[in-house]
Specification:
single chain, mainly alpha, 2 domains, globular, 27% helix, Cytochrome Bc1 Complex, Chain D, domain 2
């Protein structure tokens, strides 16, 4: 039995309770009446992969196979953008770690954003979305790029009009949501339902830690795991946490490690949402799951390799008044560096590769 936030989850038994893995902000924690017990088929999984907690599913957006299939189509459909050139998958590509392999997100008309595209992998576990946490759910996150002039550049009204003119989508929406007009809220509910199936676990680390397979990690990776948790030096586990039951590999919080804060006009991250001085330069701590497949790194995509990321942490980040108190300089030998990097590779779980589905054709 795993105790979590005053509730309990029984793993491997007949009952599975959906619990929140940890708040990013107390003000952002979902009320318990939005959460319901999960015991159903979620995408390809009847229960989460090894190493993951049960999922939260909103009461007003239950998972169904038909809704997930509709969301999968919408996710890959560029007709959601104003000029039919950009889909959700353009910046969150299954072949590129569910990101885009570039430093920054991009959109219609060759435009480029000012932040990297976060991976969709295990995004279902976070109670906030985007680097600054401005969206409280996957549903709200899905709305953002559609109306962002730099990304899809569309309007909700036009998206609804486009989908309503495609007979195949009209039939599917009626099947999933009942007879009635297509709405933007139902559109993003379907996309979010699909995204909740994009889960990765069962990594060498999971098999070693939770599957009790002591051959799943190499000797170098085992040494790296000790360094990962060593408080006086790397201390990675403080923010990219795991326990004796499951591993989020993030604390779901917002932290300032100094990335880009020395720029003449820095991106202030969480501060832009809360307007609190203590949030200047804070960004959401990303999960380390499949981290080897989601380069480049940081909110501005400045680091191409994990070696560069580790070098930045070794120097203690970039000093500034809001620098996280857990940040400090530390030293590693060449062998220790190699071991820690090897351990990060052990977070690579089962690949989540989804072939783009056939899309309903435009009417002739």
């Amino acid at each position: 039995m795993k105790k979590l936030m005053g509730w309990a989850v029984v793993l491997g038994g007949s009952m599975v309770l959906a619990l929140h893995p940890g708040p990013a902000d107390s003000a952002q924690s979902p009320p318990m009446n939005t959460v319901k017990t999960i015991k159903m088929q979620v995408g390809p999984f009847t229960e989460p992969p090894l190493g993951l907690d049960p999922l939260l599913i909103p009461k007003d957006n239950p998972q169904t196979p038909a809704k997930i299939a509709l969301g999968r189509q919408l996710y890959f459909d560029p007709r959601l953008s104003v000029d039919g050139t950009v889909s959700c998958a353009s910046c969150h590509d299954p072949r590129l770690g569910w990101s885009n392999g570039l430093s920054l997100a991009f959109g219609v008309k060759g435009q480029t954003g000012n932040r990297s595209a976060p991976t969709v992998l295990n995004a279902a576990y976070s109670d906030t979305q985007f680097w600054d946490g401005r969206a409280p759910s996957l549903e709200e996150q899905a709305k953002g790029p559609i109306a962002n002039p730099v990304e899809m550049g569309n309007t909700f009204k036009q998206v609804v009009a486009t989908l309503s003119a495609i007979p195949g989508y009209v039939r599917q929406f009626n099947q999933v949501f009942g007879d009635g007009p297509i709405t933007i809220d139902n559109t993003v509910k379907a996309i979010a339902s699909f995204e909740r199936t994009v889960l990765t676990g069962n990594s060498p680390f999971d098999r070693y830690k939770y599957g009790r397979d002591k051959s799943a990690m190499t000797a170098s990776q085992i040494r790296g795991m000790a360094l990962f948790r060593e408080k006086d030096r790397a201390n990675c586990a403080k923010c990219h946490r795991f326990d004796d039951f499951t591993a989020d590999l993030t604390d779901f919080r917002f932290r300032n490690i100094g990335v880009g804060i020395d720029h003449p006009t820095p991106d202030l991250g969480r501060y832009n949402v809360t307007k609190r001085d203590e949030d200047r330069g804070k960004f959401r701590v990303p999960t380390l799951r499949n981290i080897a497949s989601t380069a480049p790194y940081m909110h501005d995509g400045r680091f191409a390799t994990l070696e560069q990321v580790l070098d930045f942490y070794k120097q203690g980040g970039t000093d500034n008044p809001q620098l996280d108190p857990e940040m400090h300089a530390f030293k590693l030998t060449d062998q220790e560096t190699a071991d820690l990097l090897a351990f990060l590779q052990a977070f690579s779980g089962d690949p989540v590769l989804i072939t783009p589905p056939p899309l309903p054709p435009d009417p002739e």
